[in-house]
Amino acid sequence: MRNTNSKCEADRANEPRVLSPEDLNAFSRISEQYSVKKSPERASEFRQQGNLSFKVKDYTNAALYYSKGVCHADKNTEELSLCYANRSAALFYHSLYRECLEDIRRSLEAGYPSHLQDKLRARQTACLNQLKKLEKSNQPTINQATPPCQKKRSTCISPGVCVYFSPEKGRHILAMENKLAGEVVLEDEAFCCILIPSTNKAGKMFNTEDRHCHQCLSQSLCFVPCPNCSYVRYCGESCQKDAWERWHQWECPVGAYLLTIGVFGHLALRVTLKAGQNEVKRVKNSTSKDNVTCSPYKSDSPVKLSLGDPCRESSDHADCYHGNSYTGIYSLLPHVAQHSPSSRFLLAITMAVLYRRLQDGPPPDKWASCENEGVSGTWRPEMSMLGATALRHIMQLMCNAQAVTAVMVKDESGMAVQSSSEIRIATAIFPVLSLLNHSCSPNTSISFNTGIQTDLLNQFGCSESHVDNPETSCRGPHCSRMEMKVRQRLLLEQYYFHCNCQACQRDLSEESQNATESIAPGLKCAKCGKPLQSHMDRYMCSWPSCGHQITSADVQNKLKGLQCLLDEAFHLMERDRLDEALKILKSASSQANSILMETHPLQGELADATARVYATTGEWSLAASHLKHSMVAIQAQFGEDSIELGRQLFKLAQLHFNGGDCGVALSVIPRAQKLLSLHCGPHCEELQELLEMERCLQGLL
Predict the structure, then answer these.
(1) Are 167 and 463 in contact (CB under 8 A)?
(2) What separation in angstroms does the CA of 380 have from each of 253, 283, 357, 360, 582?
(3) Is 203 helix (H, G, I), strand (E, B) or coil?
(4) Can you say whether residue 671 is alpha, beta or left, with left for phi > 0 and alpha for psi between -120 and 50 degrees?
């Protein structure tokens, strides 16, 4: 029907279009830097780099280079067959005989040159012989690269742990009975996850996307590629097929755009693709269809929620517990009003562009079929709900996304003692884990299982020696790493709430009691060695008869100077100029000892760096001595049950082991095992090494 109101027509004529061809072209230009196209030239380059690594017997890097070649080569080409064949050789020297046989099969299927097949057949025979030997000796295949995917596990909440609702906190999880340290209180399966792409700022050749399956996140050396793009890779044909059927056949054509918009946009789309149109409609309509008899909550006291209880009308499902389901994801708050207008506009444009690009291909199966209708190959107007739903999910992810982490043991050449760090490998959305509230001093920790099951499993366990009625929490800044004012500002900016946890209440109380004068943590008087007190713009010695003073600016300058010396030492260590690095560290430590307590974090960093230098030169006793000094600062900052202390104990056990001090090493290992098992679970790489070390030492006694 035509509108006859001329004013209305004039207003509409002046309305800006949400998207124009120019907008889409600009977005295309930006995405060009994230090319995911196949490239035979690059495949050949990676194969040649793999050959160089193979010649120096670096079989791990060789396999990873060959895998990059596999991903960039076109399907059913000689280049692809050569990459598979060369990788099979690297896998053979890793004693990965079954994986080697698989690569030989793939190479032959891709058209491996007939005049080279004799060498490949000989390797195939050698693999079969090695497997027969292992079978006769009842030994498992050595160094299984990719554990077989097992049946996925659903969400499990420990007895005594329940979901509650209150108007102030919304839904949250509480443990209403004592839990022992190490006890798992919650297991949750990710609804969806996205591997984090690398920015490669550190210049590393291999990053998370080169080492982990893009479907199950398990580590591998023998990936199979997507036949159509060069970015994604899988631990095997099973994950490849599963990903293609679930979402990758629609993500693949827009792969460059997904890398451009980032992990949150990609994850929001994947959640929407997995849910499908019928499920989204069901969730959106269920509130109005349900015969709801619940009355609004009139008390601030938490109300226990049970799975399957009806929601209040117009509650958007946000006051009921849905378990591990799409409704549990949909009901997470998007905080639309809290997002700034510019943020809302940017997110809306991002999803609109992505939706338009998806329309260049056929609609996803779960969005092409509606109730009582067959599958259609065309986009219908009602499918715009896909873009709107993805927009809701990207807003939810700002507050509810969970970083999936893993412990990475650094492969540092020349270093006799391994160091490790926690790295982010993926971003996921969990329907139940997302209900956990924040605390700046959590009594629980998270561990992830990414290499055994097809679907990501999250375990949430108690991390203190004994917990009385813990309120489970884990996300956001920690009081041991950040001051209260900084923590509260970050939480308000990102999560839109003012934190009132026990740690913040304690810090606020101490701040008000010592508004004008308080002990400065880790700082000591350069004259008498007593602790310093902060007073307005200066620090004063806490011993009245001393009277020494120093301005805050002078203290900050001294700390900056020490940090610069530490950075310079690290720079020299990376270039194997150990004598120069040690000289600088000794000078910095001497300066630090005059103004810093041994519990100051900078003292810990200096001692740890010095220990690394001595360990590299094989001076185990000196290295252990300095590492113990660093542990004093680590324990003061993070606590005696912290994962940080556990990793230092892991390094201390290595030092004593390498130095041949069996008795001391055996005395350190149990405490390191306790902390690593507590925080990382029984299958972490560091814990497995400690078990091997313990068995070896016990055999020597």
Answers:
(1) no
(2) 20, 20, 15, 13, 69
(3) coil
(4) alpha
Indicate the helix (H) or strand (E) that contains 426.
Answer: strand 420-429
- Is the distance from CB of 188 to CB of 223 less than 8 angstroms? no
pLDDT digits (tens, 9 = 90+) for 378-387: 787 777 899 9
Please report the beta strands in 560-653, taking only residues with DSSP state E, as ranges in sequence order: none
Q: Measure the CA–CA gap between 580 and 249, rounded to whole angstroms.
A: 55
- Which is nearest to 260 in space by CA: 26, 91, 443, 10? 26
Q: Which of 57, 119, 125, 127 is nearest to 82 (CA)?
A: 119
Q: What is the maximum alpha-carbon separation in the chain? A: 98
Residue from 582, 9, 457 nearest 193 by CA: 457
SS3 category, 558: helix
Q: Is residue 118 part of a domain?
A: yes
How far is CA 235 from each of CA 92, 146, 219, 232, 688, rounded to the nearest angstrom? 17, 7, 8, 11, 23
Question: Cβ(643)–Cβ(676) under 8 Å?
Answer: yes
Residue 689: inside a domain, yes or no?
A: no
Tell me whether residue 289 is in a domain: no
What are 237-290's pLDDT values in tens digits? Answer: 999 999 999 999 999 999 999 999 999 999 999 999 999 999 999 988 875 444
Based on the structure, what is the number of domains in the chain? 1
CA distance 169 to 175: 16
Q: What is the domain-level CATH number for residue 91?
A: 1.25.40.10
For the stretch 91-142, pLDDT in tens is: 999 999 999 999 999 999 999 999 999 999 999 999 999 999 988 876 655 4
Token readout for 37 is 């196209």
Residue 80's domain comprises 40-132
Structure tokens at 612: 């690394």
Q: Is there a domain that residue 50 lies in?
A: yes
Do 54 and 89 form a contact (C-beta atoms < 8 A)?
Answer: yes
The C-alpha atoms of residue 404 and residue 422 are separated, in whole angstroms, by: 10
Residue indicated by tokens 């971003």: 427
What percent of the chain has pLDDT above 70?
A: 82
Q: How many residues does the chain have?
A: 701
Separation CA 650–CA 675 (nearest Å)? 10
Other Cβ atoms less than 10 A from the Cβ of 510: the count is: 13
pTM score, two decimals? 0.81
Cα 663 to chain centroid, rounded: 37
Cβ neighbours of 565 (radius 10 Å): 18
In our burial notation (b when 16+ CB lie closer than 10 A, e otherwise), range 619-641 reads bbebbbebbebbbbbbbbbbeeb
Q: Which of 205, 352, 260 is nearest to 36 (CA)?
A: 260
pLDDT in tens, 313-340: 555 677 788 888 899 999 999 999 999 9
